[in-house]
Design brief:
Blueprint (H helix, E strand, L loop, with lengths): L7 E3 L2 E3 L3 E3 L15 H12 L4 E3 L24 H13 L4 E5 L3 E2 L2 E2 L7 H21 L4 E5 L4 H4 L16 H4 L1 H14 L5 E6 L9 H14 L4 E5 L20 H10 L4 E4 L5 H10 L4 E4 L1 H5 L3 H7 L37
Parallel strand pairs: 3-4, 3-12, 4-5, 5-8, 8-9, 9-10, 10-11, 11-12
Antiparallel strand pairs: 1-2, 6-7
Amino acid sequence: MKTLFERTTLGPLRLRNRLVRSATWEAMADEEGRPTPRLIVAYRDLAYGRVGLIITSATTFMADATHPPRMLAIRDDTYIPAYRDLVNVVHREGTPIIMQLVFPGKNGVMWTPADATGDDIRQVVAEFGRAAVRAQVAGFDGVQVHAAHGYFTSQFLNVRRNTRTDEYGGPVENRTRILREIVQEIRQKTGDTYPVLVKINCSDFEENDGVWDACQSVCRDLADLGICAIEVSGGISKTPFPPPGLPYDESIFRDYATELARITNVPVILVGVNRTPAVMTELLNTRGIELFSLSRPFLRQPDLARFWEKNPDRPAECSSCDACRNQPDGNVCPFREDPVRNTCGIE
């Protein structure tokens, strides 16, 4: 029987267990989007807590990108040294780390597919490639393309939001084109062996949004292009979370992840209210889902993986109350007993 805490691989990466810290906005970057000492310590704590893989919070990469306050960025090569420091701290604890890349929009506007010209789309694709190279030079073990939660690339999959009539709109093959082009661009720039992951919505949970059909189609295509893993999520900011109508209280997107594991040949990572080792272990052994990612529970317990190794019968302490959002010192759990602080002399 497979277990959550056995060593496993993800492409060329060796993981100490099957638990992943999913991308989580910490709001701890500086005003230019560079990692601060406090943020580096937060990542150090996660790595020390024996999580198998860390995915950074969503990171923008264009000078005029729209973003919330204190969000990570990697706009040019001057950002590389600070990220190299972050990577080195995480690697010293034996944990691989992936940079998540996202394009929300420009000049304070969250873009929709209709906002972009053909040249705009080509620029976004090219900038994804350049950002991936910077991440590679900084020492990150791979990159993840954020195509979930209603961001720009995610909206192309949704027939209600993608009203384009050119090669990027209409049928599934067109609505998924931008994701294929982004992955191809990254692999061309970073090489065939550099790990590329994709985070994607199974559904936006809007009526007749067409996302699930597009998701299945593009995941097959991206698997053929050599991506390393698919992280399955769902929902957008305008729909409730968890989405109504799902038959589970935890590991809520399990049915979608099961189907993607069946139709593709790459590991599937399930995110979405993973709280109990017993549930995840059952899914690992019955559904073909290889890894499980968590967000808010690691804000409450950065050492959760280490805790679960000794206490597999205990659920995560996170109650999904969302009190971690927009705390004055960043997105941290106010109930955590040992708040994030600089304890390792990083200046």
